[in-house]
Amino acid sequence: MIQFPKDFLWGSSTSGVQSEGYVAQDGKGESNWDYWFKKEPYKFHQGIGPQKASTFYENYVEDIEFLEKTGHTAFRTSIQWSRLMPNGVGEVNQQAVVFYRDMFKRIIDKNIKLIVNLYHFDIPYALQKNGGWENKETVYAYAEYAKECFALFGDLVDTWITFNEPYVPVECGYLYQYHYPCKVDAKAAVQVAYNTQLASALAIKHCHEQHAHHRISIVLNLTPAYPRSQHPEDVKAAHIAELFQARSFLDPSVKGEYPQELIDILKEHQLMPEYTQDELRVIKENTVDFLGVNYYQPLRVAAPKYAPHPNSPFFPEHYYDHYVMPGRKMNPHRGWEIYERGIYDIAMNIKNNYGNIDWILTENGMGVEGEEKYCVDGIIQDDYRIDFFKGHLIELHRAIQDGANCQGYLVWTFIDCWSWLNAYKNRYGLVSLDLQTQQKTIKKSGYWFKELSQNNGF
Ligand code: BGP
Asked: Which of 102, 182, 301, 318 is the one with CA 20 to 30 A from 16?
C-alpha cells in the first residue's frame, strides 16, 4: 500500500474555456479563442471551437455532484476574463458574478478545496486587438481584473493561481503558430513572457494586500530536459532548453529573478524586452506562496545537428534539437512520451534548487482517442488511465518520502472536455461526456479515483 501524507489533496483541474461553453445572452464577451474560431475555423480540429465545451455553464449544479462521486477533495478551475469583464476592462458582467459565486459556493459547501485560476490561455479579444500581451496596458488591465476577482470572490476563494502554463501562449502564439495570434516573432515572444511575469507579480501583490491570509501561485509545466547523452554538448543543449522552457517563468516566480544565462542569450540575439527597474522590483518582491506543476511528458534534447541559417528567425531550437529516445513508452493518441520518473526529477529540482517550496501537482493525465470501444455495460473500462495514474503516483510518493513538499495530486481532467488543438479527439476525464446527449457517466478510473482518495493511497 502506498500511503500519502495526511490531508493530501485529491482532485482535478479544468479551465473555464474548456468546460463552460457559452449561451445566448449570458453577457460573455469575445475571447481570443472565440474570435480566432470565428475567423479561421479550419484551424481547429474538425472545425470545432469552444462554443459548447462540456456545458458546465448550464449544468454545473449536476456536474458538481460528480466531484463528490469521484472522491474530489480539491478542484481547480479558471475564471474566464472575457466572461467577467467582456471588454477586458471596466464593466463587470453581473451574470458572470452570479454564476461564479454560486458555482464556487456549491463546491466549498461540499468541503472541496477550491483553487481558482485567473488565466488559462484566454484573453478578452478587446485587449488582444490592441496588441494583447505585447502591450503593457494589458498588464495593468490584468492587474485590475485580478483585483476585481479578489474583491468579488475573496470571501469564497482563498487559493489562487495567476496563470496556467504561461510559456504555452508564448511559444504557441509567438513562435510556432499553434495559438492566435500565430506570429513568428521571438522579440514579441520575449516581451509577452516578460509582461506576463510582471502581471503575475502584480496579481500576487494585490492578492496579499487585499487578503493577507490568501495563498497565490502560478502553474508551470516544469518539463525536465533530458540530454541524449552525457556528451558535454548534449548536456549543454539540455541546460539551455530548460532555461527557456522551465526557468524563464520558474526563476522569476519563485526567486524573483531571471537566470543570468537566459538574459545573456537574449542580449546576444537583441531580444531583451522593454522593462523598468520599478517593474523588476515588483517581480522581485512578489513571488509565489506555492507552486502548481503540470506534468505530462519529458523534454528530450540533443546538441543541434546544424547551425541555423543566418537569416532564420530566432527560435530556442537554435540551441537544441528534439530527441526521440529509442524504446520510449508512448501515449500514441496524444503523441506524448510517458515517463513517470519525470515527476520525481521535478520534485527533486524544486527541493534542491527552489527552497523546497510547497507545491501541488496541478495536472497529469492521459488523453485517449476512441474510448467508446472500451465501454462495457455503459462504463468506460479505462484501465490504461488507472495504470498511468498509478505509475506517476509511485514516483510522486517516492519523491515525498525523499523530502518533496508536494501537497496534492490533481488530474487532467474531471469531465471529458474540449481541447485547444484537438477538440474532443482525446478524452482525459474521470467522467465521460456523450457529445450528442450531453450525458455524463463515471468511468472506471473515476470509481478508482474515489477509492484512492478515500484510502489516501492505493
Ligand atoms: C495542458 C493544458 C490543459 C489541457 C492539457 C491537455 O497543457 O493546461 O488546458 O488542454 O494540457 O492537453 P491537450 O488538450 O492538448 O491534449
From this structure: 182
For the Cβ of 412 lying below 6 angstroms from any atom of ligand 1, the answer is yes
The type of residue at 188 is A
Q: What is the DSSP letter of 415?
A: B
**Of the candidates 390, 407, 398, 397, which has an alpha carbon nearest to the alpha carbon of residue 356?**
407
Q: Break the chain down into helix, strand, coil percent, rounded to 5.
A: 45, 15, 40
Q: Dump the DSSP string for 116-154.
A: EES-SS--BHHHHTTTGGGSHHHHHHHHHHHHHHHHHHT
Ligand 1 centroid–CA 210 distance in Å is 31
Say if residue 89 is exposed, middle or buried (CB neighbours under 10 Å; 0-12, 13-18, 19+).
middle
Q: What is the pLDDT of residues 310-351, one digit of tens each?
A: 999 999 999 999 999 999 999 999 999 999 999 999 999 999
Helix H segments across 186-316? 186-210, 232-242, 248-254, 260-268, 277-285
pLDDT at 223: 84
For this structure, is 165 an active site residue? yes
Share of the chain above pLDDT 70, in %: 100
**Residue 422 in contact with ligand 1 by CB distance below 6 A:** yes
Is-contact 112 104, C-beta < 8 A? Answer: no
Q: Which of 420, 446, 424 is nearest to 434 (CA)?
A: 424
Which residue carries 457559452 as its cell? 22
Residue 421 near ligand 1, beta carbon < 6 Å: yes
Residues 33-59 pLDDT 10s: 999 999 999 999 999 999 999 999 999
Among 12, 412, 413, 415, name the best residue to mutate to test ligand 1's pocket (greatest count of ligand atoms within 8 A of Cβ): 412
Instruction: Report the alpha-carbon angle 106-107-112, nearest 5.
Output: 145
Of all protein residues, the one whose alpha carbon is nearest to atom 14 of ligand 1 is: 419
Ligand 1 centre from 307 Cα, in Å? 32
Using the mean position of ligand 1's atoms as its centre, give its distance from the Cα of residue 270 in Å: 32
**Alpha-carbon gap, residue 196 to 249, rounded angstroms:** 9
369: CB partners within 8 A, 6+ apart: 333, 425, 426, 427
What whole-number distance in Å separates Cα of residue 105 and Cα of residue 114? 9
* Cβ(15) – ligand 1 distance below 6 Å: yes
Does the pLDDT value for residue 72 go beyond 90?
Answer: yes
